[in-house]
Design goal:
The chain is an all-alpha fold and 100 residues long. The protein is built from four helices and no strands.
């Protein structure tokens, strides 16, 4: 009988995902707006308010949020989240003025 040689580059199928760890508090992202809200939180370095960004991604106009995000990313502000909220408010006011 011949002994089986173990290939060093392969692992058992059951151990395939052992090297990956999932955060227990991250929840499940099932909708696109949730993903975009988390993307906003990451880009703005504001993980504590990720629920706010998810809500904004769901309720606000996507063009407004993307324009404000581009503005903030191009700047070197100390508080990117605060600048983002200001810019969203400014863009919404400009759109309102154009309607009137």
């Amino acid at each position: 009988m011949a002994k089986k040689k173990k290939n060093k580059g392969f692992s058992q199928l059951g151990n395939l995902f052992d090297q990956y760890q999932v955060k227990k508090d991250s929840g499940h992202v099932t909708r696109e707006f949730q993903n975009f809200g988390l993307h906003l939180a990451n880009k703005l370095d504001d993980q504590t308010h990720k629920g706010l960004y998810i809500k904004m991604a769901k309720e606000e106009n996507r063009g407004v949020l993307e324009a404000a995000l581009r503005f903030v990313i191009d700047s070197d502000a100390d508080s990117k989240a605060r600048l983002f909220m200001w810019k969203v408010k400014q863009i919404k006011q400009e759109k309102q003025r154009k309607k009137e």
